[in-house]
Amino acid sequence: MPNDTAIAALVQLLGDRLTTSEADRRLHGQNETYYPNTPPDAVAYPDSTTEVSQILKICHDHTCPVTAYGAASSLEGQHLALRGGISLDMSRMNRVLSIQPEDLTCTVQPGLTRKQLNEELRATGLFFSVDPGADASIGGMAATRASGTTAVRYGTIRDNVLAVEAVMADGTVIRSGSRARKSATGYDLTHLMIGSEGTLGILTELTLKLHGQPECITAATCRFENVGQAVACVIATIQCGIPMARIELLDHMMVRGFNTYANAGLPEEPHLFLEFHGAPGAVAEQMASFEEIAQDSGARGWRTATTTEDRNALWAMRHNAHYASAALGPGKHIWPTDVCVPISHLAEAIAQSQADAKRLNLTATIVGHVGDGNFHAGLSVDPNDADEMARAHTFTHTLGETALRLGGTVSGEHGIGIGKQDFMTVEHGPALTYMRAIKQAFDPKGILNPGKLLPPEFLQEAAE
Ligand SMILES: Cc1cc2nc3c(=O)[nH]c(=O)nc-3n(C[C@H](O)[C@H](O)[C@H](O)COP(=O)(O)OP(=O)(O)OC[C@H]3O[C@@H](n4cnc5c(N)ncnc54)[C@H](O)[C@@H]3O)c2cc1C
User: Does residue 413 form part of some domain?
Assistant: First the structure.
């Protein structure tokens, strides 16, 4: 194998924390979607920044690919070692390094998951807000520029990372940003690393913003006769400036998925799942304002969830949307895709995607963080059915084109990975040349997560 010499050197460094076992390689080749298993040549489990630096130095010297691995929940195949080499499993670097309650910040290692972090923060009265549903690692979330249900109120991970420590392709360790809330000192490498999908460097520490736990939290649901009414309600709510903590849309197919997967017993109509945060008076006021808008939009079946158990049950159901979509096509895989549009075009984008799914004879669910104009379609596909895969590809492509035509983007949160590279030229045009130059400057040998994010050159040439 071409990477054998690097692997031999890594065994010297890591001992049994470098494995080439078939089982571990296959485990690290799995993904949550329809991509075939893609095992790396070996899996490394570093314990420290120093070890990450040593690993990268060895891999750089031997031109051996390195793909960082967090919790493997990414949905565009980002963590798959497409060109072999090393899967750099960050799970042992999972400590909270410090918490500064007075500054509302903490510094953590990248392998820590968001649930582990919130567990550690519980006694402080603070919480980390970014919630992509899956129990993703903080490093993976930063690398994919994740968001989720609470971004409408608290921002995406991009808004919640103040500083990073990163190991560059040749093993050099850098720091960018600080614990201060803002800085005006040169190029913003912190935010360049966020969303770079492990192609520019390996994140080894992150300093995060925290938020105070709200005094009062109330969740609620309501339903509508059609998606148009639900979306009209969302648009009016956002335009009125009601500070929604969560506002999630589920179309009737998604509700059918919940009924099938979790016996939810919900009427199969479009629903909004909502959450309000604040002081008790403020929450009551927000809910009253929302209810007025909802009624004008045709909402019915208003239900609230005030106890922690009821709220947790509601959001657990929402967070299982991926698996509930899968329940609609037993034995099939889910091809998830997301786009994000300006909120004023949300209704048009959703209506178009529903019509496309029907036209292409695909089973599709729609669910979304619609307060941000971001929604997901989950297609049931059989990877061995070439015709169905072609129709799913047409759906995804048309949805991306629709988002761009409406002034949006082909991904609000899932990222590019393998699945959306052919959109990069269309969305970014000449800016892609500068992205390529950045990659070249950061990783001249191309060892960091090769084959991801930037499309192969020939795609760009074909588009010119
Ligand atoms: C059920 C379900 C629901 C989801 N819902 C959402 C959602 O609502 N919003 C959303 O944004 N996403 C969602 N996702 C996708 C996923 O959770 C995110 O993409 C997440 O941020 C990935 O984190 P991870 O730790 O699993 O990273 P991985 O999948 O392991 O890796 C993702 C990428 O990050 C890189 N990476 C990992 N660690 C590092 C590091 N330390 N340094 C540099 N690069 C690194 C990897 O190389 C890879 O390119 C969902 C996924 C599932 C399965």
Answer: no
Whether residues 118 and 226 share a domain: the answer is no
Domain count, the chain: 5
Q: Is the pLDDT of residue 2 over 90?
A: no
Distance 232 CA to ligand 1 centre (A): 31
Please name the residue whose Cα sits nearest to atom 44 of ligand 1: 198
% residues pLDDT > 90 (the chain): 97
Distance from C-alpha of 318 to C-alpha of 16, rounded to nearest angstrom: 39
The label of the residue with tokens 């010499």 reads 5
Residue 138 CA to ligand 1 center (angstroms) comes to 9
- The CATH number of whichever domain residue 77 belongs to comes to 3.30.43.10
Same domain? For 221 and 193 the reply is no
Query: Residue 12 has which token pair?
Result: 């010297």
- Domain containing residue 386: 331-405
Rounded to the nearest whole angstrom, what is the distance from the C-alpha of residue 256 to the centroid of ligand 1?
A: 27
Q: Are residues 199 and 267 in the same domain?
A: no
Asked if residue 1 has pLDDT above 90, the reply is no
- Say whether both 384 and 350 belong to one domain: yes
Residue 408 CB neighbour total at 10 angstroms: 22
Q: Tens digits of per-residue pLDDT, 105-116? A: 999 999 999 999
Residue 410 within a domain: no
Say which DSSP state 81 is in. Answer: -
The model's confidence at residue 306, banded by pLDDT at 50, 70 and 90, is: confident
Categorize the per-residue pLDDT at 463 as very low, low, confident or very high, splitting at 50, 70 and 90: low
Which residue owns the Cα nearest ligand 1 atom 18?
74
Distance CA 77, CA 337 (A): 12
| In-domain check, residue 411 | no
Distance of CA 31 from the midpoint of ligand 1 (Å): 11
77 found inside a domain? yes
Q: What is the mean pLDDT of residues 351-372?
A: 95
Q: Using CA positions, which residue lies closest to atom 28 of ligand 1?
A: 72
Dump the DSSP string for 149-218: TTHHHH--HHHHEEEEEEE-TTS-EEEEE-SSS---SSS-HHHHHTTSTTSS-EEEEEEEE-EEPPSEEE
Ligand 1 atom showing the smallest separation from residue 68 Cα? 47
3-state secondary structure of 133: coil
